[in-house]
Automatic annotation (TrEMBL):
Name of the protein in question: YlmH/Sll1252 family protein
Source lineage: Bacteria, Bacillati, Mycoplasmatota, Mollicutes, Acholeplasmatales
Species of provenance: Paracholeplasma manati
Keywords (A to Z) from UniProt: RNA-binding
Pfam families in UniProt: YlmH_RBD (PF17774)
InterPro entries attached to this UniProt entry: Nucleotide-bd_a/b_plait_sf, RqcP2_RBD
Top-level lineage group: Bacteria
Residue intervals of the Ribosome-associated protein quality control protein P2 RNA-binding domain: 79-130
Keyword set includes RNA-binding: yes
Amino acid sequence: MNTKTDFLRRLKNQRDTFHQDLLYRFLNPPERDLVKSIFKGFHIYESNPTAEYARVIVSDAVLEPNFKTTLLCSSYRDEQLTHRDVLGALMHLGIERDTFGDIYISETHIYIEVLSELIQVFKDLHQIKQDFIYFEPIDAFPSEFKERSESITLFLDSLRVDALVAKAFNIQREDVKGLIDQEKVKINYFPIQKYTILVKPYDIISVRGFGRIILTDDIGTSKSQKIRIKCELLR
């Protein structure tokens, strides 16, 4: 998938020549929306509708979908390890982004859902920074799974997305605008193009290269009339 236009052209061709179920690699939300818009009237299944990256099956019949994915898990020790580190290590191996889903990091383990036919490729990753990594297949996330995050309280003049991102990651607002221009900032997994968009409770703001901010519903006003908001920061 080179561009949005290429992907759209491919979808239309597949719709016009449809003769069997279609199983796509891991798609982001805008791509999944394109699939849904082109294949109206078909049955569409997503491996994880709430994730940023999910596999999609298109069928003309009701079925029990088999997404042909495997959940991999590895322990780690580096307390400074981030999603960016894991993603960078995978990209360094030449692994394409549409071959795996979201990266989840708990206090002790890394979890990645991958294409089942490429398990060995991912198992070839043995080091991230200075930490030893060894991925093994598991059946499911542990029941007590919780992503590693940092709780922070921010005091803002407004709830504009550029103000929030600048404060959360301690970067200049002009730099945030540059990230937005490059479509590196997403709200609820969709790229944004305006700096002035207002965020609201439960929004997920993703900033490529920095991490994610998850807003809570705890919003108030400080004595100095600043907007007070609590967030979960995932790096």
